[in-house]
Amino acid sequence: MAIARTTIKRPGGGFSMIELIVIMAVVGILSSMVAAFMLAPMRGYLDSTRRAVLVDIANTALQRMARDIRLALPNSVRVRQVAGVYYLEFLMIAEGGRYREETDPTIPGSDKLDFANGADDTFDILGPALDMAAGDQIVLYNLGVDAETDAYLGGNRRVYSGAAGPVGQIHFTATGTPFRFEPPGRRFFVVRTPVSYSCNPATGELRRFSAYAIGGSQPTDPASPPLNGGNSHLLATSVTGCNFAYDSGAITGNLGQVTLWLQLTSEGESVSLYREMVVNNNA
């Protein structure tokens, strides 16, 4: 006698729709919790990176300014503010030395700087040769007081007229009027170009200008001569604040002080750097 068997079929494995929805909801909640946990550290990292970039830009710009200002001709630093834009200008020293005060009979052809002769156009350098270039300017005893002691006005400045390269004697274009004052240290300076810095928070730029003509008035318009006739280099962007100040006798009569403040801002992050430097005004 055959026995009848009944086969019971069970449903296939897997998730029901309700189970799938529950899993998706749990995964969403967990993802939100993880995202909330990671958001603050990620935001902090991005903010610190942005600040580090701004600090690096500002510090590099101020270091460049400080390096240049250390080469400023004594008493040539001047600062102006026009319509919220700060300008700092100075004459940059390229070379310097001491001139011969008296002729030396033991040295044939020795030549002194004659302060009584307006036609005198040559003097010997005491010390090593200087590397001169066409267009260099010779400056003596720059006090910045009047037309005869201010290199910007030209009374104590002469155009170098000798050969380019290392020289042991300075030739310059005589003006018919001798240098008026003899420097106590018998020093002379060689300047090649003025240098100006322009900081404009409205445009967000800090710029450096050079290789333009020396003038009596401090230039304050980058779009007009003489600044637009020289070289212009962008040092920093994202500038939202700045201040340049100069005190010619902040420390002693021969030591002045330049103070620089620069603020940069990007995506809500701001950094401010401040720098002070001593300027030697011993002419």
Note down, in words, how this protein is organized:
With 283 residues, this protein is α+β, with helices and mostly antiparallel strands. The chain has one domain (59-280). Helix content is 19%, strand content 37%. The protein contains one helix and 14 strands; from the N terminus they run αββββββββββββββ. Strands 1, 2, 3, 5, 6, 8, 9, 10 and 11 form a nine-stranded antiparallel β-sheet that branches. The radius of gyration is 34 Å and the shape is elongated. The termini are far apart. The relative contact order is 0.16.
Keywords, please?
nine-stranded antiparallel beta sheet, 14 strands, elongated, single chain, three-stranded antiparallel beta sheet, 283 residues, alpha+beta, 19% helix
Spell out the blueprint of helices and strands.
Elements: H1 17-69, E1 78-82, E2 85-99, E3 122-126, E4 130-132, E5 137-139, E6 157-159, E7 165-167, E8 169-171, E9 187-200, E10 205-210, E11 231-236, E12 239-252, E13 255-266, E14 269-280
Antiparallel strand pairs: 1-2, 2-3, 2-9, 3-8, 4-7, 5-6, 5-9, 9-10, 10-11, 12-13, 13-14
The pLDDT mean sits at 89
**Structural class computed from helices and strand pairing:** alpha+beta
Radius of gyration: 34 Å
Number of domains: 1
Percent strand equals: 35-45%
The gross shape turns out to be: elongated
Task: List the quaternary state of the chains.
Answer: single chain
